[in-house]
Amino acid sequence: MTKVKSLAELKAMKERLHSVLDVREKAENPESLVQIKVGMATCGIAAGAKQVMAHMMQKADELGIQAVFTQTGCMGHCHAEPTVEVSVPGRESVIFGHVDNNRADEILAKYIQNNEKVEGVIATNKTNQ
Question: Would you state the pLDDT for residue 5?
């Protein structure tokens, strides 16, 4: 996370965060938005899930992706932490493993925006990918 060096930067950060929260809190139909869940159990946090979530939230905002970000507990894929579950309206939800900032960027730009396949999908009973 970057250091805040001025009151103007702090105000700009506050505005960005408020706009992200507004999407989450004021959405009349949140299931019509992209849902992104980041595994934040002990193993996920130790593997860098907090940093990945912060990065994804900032990058989604930059890309204009309206998404609801939530933290979740253990997804049962400790071997593949950090894990991120993505649900795009009209598509099956998928879980990505070993997500770092570069993979997060791919998930946002390729999978969410362009409906392209991205490596790192964890096979589950919920998906056929």
Answer: 86
The answer to whether residue 1 sits within a structural domain is: no
- Cα 78 from chain centroid (whole Å): 18
The reported pLDDT for the residue numbered 110 is: 96
Taking each helix axis from N to C terminus, what angle separates 49-63 and 7-26, rounded to the nearest 10 degrees? 90
Element (H, E) at 40: none
For 11-61, what is each residue's pLDDT tens digit? Answer: 888 887 776 666 555 556 767 889 999 999 999 999 999 999 999 999 998
d(CA 26, CA 23): 6
Q: How many CB atoms lie within 10 A of CB 114?
A: 9
Count of domains forming the chain: 1
pLDDT of residue 36: 95
Rounded CA separation 67/36 (Å): 7
- Is 127 contained in some domain? no
- The number of angstroms, rounded, from the C-alpha of 68 to the middle of its chain's C-alpha atoms is 8
**Beta strands 84-87 and 67-72, pairing class:** unpaired
